[in-house]
């Protein structure tokens, strides 16, 4: 039994090791304080720096712990002054920004002009790898701080100047009348000194100037936010705090809501849409969000850049039965698109229902005729490329293809072309490797028409993956940006949008709704135009 | 014995290198991960270049692999895209999954072996047929069905348990997920034990033991069971590896933030560092489990000796 004893010892060692590691992990404690509620969350993709957070989950936290110069009204989406007392400009190019008195960070530090200027310089600086750096690209000196190639030549933006504690000036590299309205975006929030002095510590427990403070943050599991009792702003939290719980699957979050373990779900899974009214009754909400889904085209591809291809694109647009797809697949949580912006902008903000006109209306006969006139589908077939890993894209791409196939009486006219992961899909579409139409979703950064047009269709713009280019569109956008009268600017943007329509640069599909479901404990739940719950207004009990 | 263990440990080296290289290449083939970091817009080229440099993605693959392995041997598993060290992710994920695995394995051993012995000793009786039928049902129903069904019944309809597991994931909350995770293997363990017991019951040494006048429980536990457990132990050893790495479905259903969650997220975000790191550890777990199983043979059956 010599071998046996040795083996026995080996087993013991393993068992001890197992037992030891099994001891890890702390106990769970229920949240104290009556008015705290829980909400579903997903692990943010990037570190929680304001200029580095470009998705909703990280943005959720930032919107609770930070307040910027402007704040978007949850209902109308209009940018209203928050920290800014006034923002003045004589020429739409040089802005003088004055701060309100009395604002502090939750650690007691005063919010000064320097808090903003330093934060913006940090966000723009190439060496900090901030993914939202381009937000500062309108400011003079950006090309020195963040050159497209090579090392950065300056540490700070030359266009930013601190005048005194409560005043600073911003000089832009071109006229941009909408600039003040962009300042409600998370990338523009002020940062306390602690952010730079103890960066790792700040990331572990962010400190801001918003109505909530971070009590504890366990990465990948949960974040506990409590109401900041001495919050100096006008929009103090109506509840004691929020516990954000990370869910890997939104179905589980929904089940937890049904079982009473979770108070708020802000992403009702598509599979549950049919039951949600029965399950939750009037504790369910679905409102338009600033998201539009389109089919983008590879304008860099010769076959999609011919004289006739405009007609082919228009024909495809008319072959898609948007009503039927949004009804059957999305249960009316999406609305057929009739322009290239979003209803959340409102009429004054630039949304114009029906701007697309007949080109977005389903008509099989007209579709057939248009495509024939345009010289037929390139290669006899269109392949719609999408990523198969998230967002149930397969469902609607297949439905769109079915619709096209039926309209054209051709079973092989359209097929879906799934790509395994989002990253791979993005890498292929941003490097112009796709040869057919592809899925393009756009979530607005700030509620301006400009944000729905310029980044997507301006020559060589940051999200113009299809490389659409039109001199007339570029000219109209430049003029609109320089226009100081907002109403006039909106009209110019709409003219530019008409250029997009006449070229059918992309096919608008539908506007997306944000959705939320909540428990009986909560009331006054609303979603803002960015489909993030307005946490501070929620009442508990 | 000592020599044998050393030989086995040395054999692990090429297996380890091969497995990690394969995973590394597979993740690499999926394409450029940086493009997915900027959402539905293009990362600006300057930042993308810097990120690629920072994560070493601008080097040729072989060089990336060598650097990575070099770092791994010094205990540095790299950094995930959200700025967390992979070792930090491991230190939170592995204990949770390990607890889940322990629960599942205990279910398999206690319930599986007991049922196996019971049915093996009563072959052809109603108990045997009943259990056999039950195992058949369990094997043919996929895990996610049992998981979602039990979650809905116990968690929502009857309210006996919480449908999801809290971040701390104590043993108590892992009972149901552990059972769900164990069901299929449990059925196999039952069947393996049953066959093995039924076979060995007629062997000479059992007859001898009975003829010696040993009490029945002693015959069953000391003589019959010990010899019959060899195939079961082999199965369980391999199963530990499977349970640790393959719990993705169960972990998703019950919102357990373990290895499956990290792997799934790592694959979606094409995070080479996370995926390769976790798989590397899983490969090690597999190899060690196999070694332990082989050593256990000698404990169970003294006729097996390693030289």
How does this structure look, described?
Chain A: One of its GO terms (biological process) is peptide transport. Chain A: It comes from Streptomyces caeruleatus. Chain A: One of its GO terms (cellular component) is periplasmic space. Chain A: Residues 1-22 form the signal peptide. The complex is a heterodimer of chains A (541) and B (307). Chain A is an alpha+beta fold and 541 residues long. Chain A has helices spanning 2-22, 56-65, 113-124, 142-145, 179-182, 194-197, 199-204, 250-259, 276-280, 309-318, 322-328, 346-349, 364-373, 393-408, 422-430, 449-457, 471-482, 486-503; strands at 36-41, 70-72, 79-81, 84-88, 94-99, 160-164, 167-171, 212-218, 222-227, 241-246, 264-265, 284-296, 334-336, 382-387, 414-419, 438-443, 506-518, 522-523, 539-540. In chain A, strands 11, 12, 13, 16 and 17 form a 5-stranded antiparallel beta sheet that branches. Chain A has a 4-stranded mixed beta sheet with strand order 1-10-9-8, with helices on one face. Chain A starts with a helix and ends with a strand. Chain B has 13 helices and no strands. Chain B has helices at 2-29, 45-54, 61-73, 86-121, 126-140, 143-157, 175-200, 204-211, 216-228, 230-245, 248-253, 259-268, 272-300. In chain B, helix 5 (126-140) packs across helix 7, helix 7 runs antiparallel to helix 10 (230-245) and helix 10 runs antiparallel to helix 13 (272-300). Chain B is flat, with a radius of gyration of 24 Å. Chain B has a single domain (86-300), classed as MetI-like (MetI-like fold), CATH 1.10.3720. Chains A and B meet through helix 1, helix 8, helix 15 and strand 16 of A and helix 2, helix 4, helix 6, helix 11 and helix 12 of B.
């Amino acid at each position: 039994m010599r071998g046996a004893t040795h083996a026995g010892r080996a087993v013991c060692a393993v068992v001890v090791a197992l037992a030891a590691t099994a001891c890890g992990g702390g106990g769970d404690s229920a949240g104290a304080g009556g008015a705290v509620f829980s909400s579903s969350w997903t692990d943010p993709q990037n570190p929680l720096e304001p200029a580095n957070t470009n998705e909703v989950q990280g943005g959720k936290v930032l919107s609770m712990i930070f307040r910027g110069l402007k704040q978007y009204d949850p209902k109308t989406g209009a940018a209203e002054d928050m920290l800014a007392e006034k923002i003045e400009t004589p020429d739409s190019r040089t802005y003088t920004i004055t701060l309100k008195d009395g604002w502090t960070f939750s650690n007691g530090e005063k919010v000064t002009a320097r808090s903003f200027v330093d934060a913006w310089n940090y966000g723009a600086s190439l060496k900090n790898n901030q993914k939202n750096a381009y937000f500062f690209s309108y400011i003079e000196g950006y090309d020195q701080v963040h050159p497209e190639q090579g090392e950065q030549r300056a540490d700070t933006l030359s266009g930013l100047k601190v005048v005194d504690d409560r005043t600073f000036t911003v000089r832009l590299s071109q006229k941009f009348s909408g600039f003040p309205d962009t300042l409600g975006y998370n990338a523009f929030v002020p940062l306390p000194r602690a952010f730079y002095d103890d960066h790792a510590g700040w990331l572990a427990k962010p400190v801001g100037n918003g109505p909530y403070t971070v009590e504890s943050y366990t990465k990948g599991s949960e974040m506990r936010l409590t109401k900041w009792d001495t919050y100096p702003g006008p929009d103090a939290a109506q509840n004691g705090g929020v516990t954000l719980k990370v869910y890997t699957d939104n179905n589980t979050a929904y089940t937890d809501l049904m079982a009473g373990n979770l108070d708020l779900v802000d992403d009702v899974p598509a599979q549950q849409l049919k039951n949600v009214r029965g399950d939750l009754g009037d504790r369910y909400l679905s409102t338009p969000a600033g998201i539009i889904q389109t089919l983008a085209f590879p304008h860099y591809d010769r076959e999609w850049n011919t004289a006739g291809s405009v007609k082919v694109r228009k024909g495809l647009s008319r072959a898609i039965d948007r009503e039927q797809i949004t009804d059957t697949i999305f249960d009316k949580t999406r609305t057929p698109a009739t322009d290239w912006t979003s209803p959340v902008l409102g009429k004054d903000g630039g949304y114009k229902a029906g701007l697309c006109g007949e080109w977005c209306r389903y008509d099989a006969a007209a579709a057939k005729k248009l495509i024939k006139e345009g010289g037929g589908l390139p290669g006899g077939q269109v392949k719609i490329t999408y990523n198969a890993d998230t967002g149930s894209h397969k469902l609607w791409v297949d439905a769109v293809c079915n619709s096209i196939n039926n309209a054209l009486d051709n079973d092989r006219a359209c097929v879906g072309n799934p790509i395994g992961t989002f990253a791979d899909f993005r890498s292929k579409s941003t490097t112009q490797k796709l040869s057919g139409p592809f899925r393009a979703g756009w979530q607005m950064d700030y509620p301006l028409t400009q944000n729905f047009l310029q980044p997507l269709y301006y020559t060589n713009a940051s999200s113009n993956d299809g490389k659409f280019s039109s001199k007339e569109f570029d000219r109209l956008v430049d003029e609109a940006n320089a226009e100081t009268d907002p109403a006039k600017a909106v009209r110019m943007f709409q003219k530019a949008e008409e250029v997009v329509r006449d070229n059918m640069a992309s096919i608008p599909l539908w506007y997306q709704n944000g959705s939320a479901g909540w428990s009986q404990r909560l009331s006054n739940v609303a979603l803002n135009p960015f489909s993030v719950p307005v946490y501070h207004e929620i009442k508990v009990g | 014995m000592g020599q044998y263990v050393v030989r086995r440990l040395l054999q692990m080296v090429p297996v380890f290198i091969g497995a990690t290289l394969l995973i590394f290449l597979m993740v690499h083939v999926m394409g450029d991960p940086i493009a997915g970091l900027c959402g539905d817009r293009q990362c600006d080229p300057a930042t993308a270049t810097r990120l690629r440099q920072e994560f070493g993605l601008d080097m040729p693959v072989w060089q990336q692999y060598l650097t990575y392995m070099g770092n791994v041997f010094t205990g540095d598993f790299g950094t995930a895209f959200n700025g967390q060290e992979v070792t930090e992710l491991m230190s939170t994920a592995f204990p949770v999954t390990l607890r889940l695995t322990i629960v599942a394995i205990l279910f398999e051993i206690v319930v599986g072996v007991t049922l196996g012995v019971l049915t093996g000793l009563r072959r052809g009786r109603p108990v045997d047929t009943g259990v056999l039928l039950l195992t058949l049902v369990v094997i043919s129903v996929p895990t996610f069905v049992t998981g979602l069904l039990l979650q809905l019944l116990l968690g929502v309809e009857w309210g006996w348990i919480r449908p999801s597991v809290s971040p701390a994931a104590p043993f108590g909350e892992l009972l149901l997920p552990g059972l769900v995770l164990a069901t299929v293997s449990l059925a196999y363990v039952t069947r393996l034990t049953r066959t093995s017991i039924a076979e060995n019951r007629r062997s000479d040494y059992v007859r001898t033991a009975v003829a010696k006048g040993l009490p029945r429980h002693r015959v069953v536990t000391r003589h019959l069971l010990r010899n019959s457990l060899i195939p079961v132990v082999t199965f369980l050893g391999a199963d530990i590896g499977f349970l640790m790495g393959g719990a993705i479905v169960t972990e998703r259903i019950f919102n357990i933030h373990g290895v499956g969650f990290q792997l799934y997220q790592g694959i979606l975000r094409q995070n080479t560092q996370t995926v390769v790191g976790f798989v590397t550890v899983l490969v090690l777990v597999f190899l060690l489990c196999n070694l332990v199983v082989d050593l256990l043979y000698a404990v169970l059956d003294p006729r097996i000796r390693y030289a």
